[in-house]
Fold:
Amino acid sequence: MTRPWEIDPEATFLRRLGKSAVELGDSRTTADCPDIWELSNGDVAVVGRDATALFADRMPPGVSVGHDERLVVVPGNMLRAAKPDIADV
Structure:
């Protein structure tokens, strides 16, 4: 069965949403930083720490992580910093 949404493997990184983890003080190096990026097709890529196992038994009803998905966590200040870059559609 085909899912309604699939990753576009041809999409490229278009622009960072918000500020880098270094700018926000959430990292001292660029080697392992959380990040949020808009892709060329309008999708969003999130780089964060894999917290799937940590939250697996605490997810609220209606929240699930598929076999090919991971729950990632980014600092709250990073998402708030991205807000001006996210269009109100």
